[in-house]
Amino acid sequence: xxxxxxxxxxxxxxxxxxxxxxxxxxxxxxxxxxxxxxxxxxxxxxxxxxxxxxxxxxxxxxxxxxxxxxxxxxxxxxxxxxxxxxxxxxxxxxxxxxxxxx
Length: 102
Prior knowledge:
three-stranded antiparallel beta sheet; 5 helices
């Protein structure tokens, strides 16, 4: 269950917007505030000169599971593959059954 919960963390943060936080505050909950709690905010948690380039790029709202669509991810400036077992299966069977991607 830990994996599922961490995967949904951005969407849980997005839920806080419905309860009064701004989107910026909600994003800070899972970025800078988390880095401060872990004591690594000198290198992670926000986009600043001299900090690690650990980030993701999303089409749509990163805090909304309906519109979030990750296009790129970087850890310490290195590109991370977004391919998973599920995306491989999707490609295999969409080709087999002639399903076109949106």
